[in-house]
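Task: sequence in, structure out. Protein: DsbA family protein.
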Amino acid sequence: MPAAVLSPPGSHTLTEAADGKVTITEFLDYQCPACAGYFTNITSKLEKDYAGKVTFVVRNFPLGMHPLAVPAARAAESAAEQGKFSEMYHVLYENFQQWAVTPDGQSVSEDAERANELFRGYAQRIGLDVAKFTADLTAPAVQARIDKDTADGKTAGVTGTPALFVNGQRFEPSGQTFADVDKQLRELVDRELAE
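Result:
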């Protein structure tokens, strides 16, 4: 899949490699439990371990089954408007249980009002201008960014999340555990770095 689809200029990155040799692109849904599991067990560690060695691109792909996926994507994009995308990305996943699931922890939350209140708290915590952040949540440019990411994801054949690509190749893990998947992903990245 061409880079123009997976990681067009201006894409949000968590880490960047000066040599541009390896690019990992993740299409994600912030309210997706599997994405949160990947963040906790795989991608947050990969981000630290390969900092400066790979370019890690994050794209939005909110799924219809998750009612707070779009509000969360808007929160991340609104933070990006103030240069704090990475900080909001991290805080959304680190606090997944707080906003993304019901208080009893049994199902996906639909409480957008509660979520947006929490998002404003996160915005304050990471040092954003909260008034600007709140205004940006409903800005057409923010929604357009999410729509473009989603359209590119569909072009790339994404139907679910998380969807990872390494140098344009879809990563299709066969592992049954996060540890297995982590190992497979690192082997693929290491192979690409060695070429």
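The domain at 3-194 is CATH 3.40.30.10 (Glutaredoxin).
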